[in-house]
Design brief:
This protein has a single domain, classed as Alpha-Beta Complex (Sufe protein. Chain: A), CATH 3.90.1010. Helices cover about 40% and strands about 15% of the residues. It has helices spanning about 1-20, 75-85, 95-100, 110-130, and strands at about 30, 35-40, 55-60, 65-70. The longest helix is centred in the C-terminal third of the chain and has 21 residues, at about 110-130. The N and C termini lie far apart (about 50 Å). The model is unreliable at about 10-25 (pLDDT under 50). One of its GO terms (molecular function) is FMN binding.
């Protein structure tokens, strides 16, 4: 019984060390001149047709370079249509992109709206935390 408790304690201590080495917040990271905003945690309540639709927003000099959809549980056929609207944000200043109203993709309306809300949430987070 004592050996089992010691093993459990060792596992717990090891896990604590691993977690303590992780970054505190992976929502906004930097890679060279690029700031990357990940909406996985800041837009948890934003759902498409089936579930969350997080994105990564790549920003350089206050301009959106790229918006990338992250893995999700949306229907692939329809989500592929919705993802196309993300191109509309590229090249725009972060302020302009945050205020943009992009038309939803017909046939993938819920996924489209969720993607747009994720982008807005990510850009708002960037503005408040840069």
């Amino acid at each position: 019984m004592k050996k089992k408790n010691i093993k459990l304690c060792m596992v717990a201590v090891s896990a604590a060390f691993i977690v303590s080495g992780m970054p505190a917040d992976s929502t906004m990271t930097s890679k060279g001149n690029t700031t990357i905003v990940n909406t996985t945690t800041i837009a948890k309540g934003v759902k498409g047709y089936k579930h969350n639709t997080p994105v990564k927003i790549y920003i350089e000099r206050n301009r959106v370079v790229k918006v990338e959809a992250l893995p999700n549980q949306e229907t692939p056929k329809y989500f592929a249509k919705a993802k196309k609207l993300l191109k509309n944000y590229e090249g725009k200043t972060t302020r302009k992109a945050e205020k943009m109203s992009v038309d939803a993709v017909s046939g993938a309306t819920m996924s489209s709206k969720a993607l747009m809300k994720n982008v807005q949430a990510g850009l708002e987070y960037y503005r408040r935390n840069k």
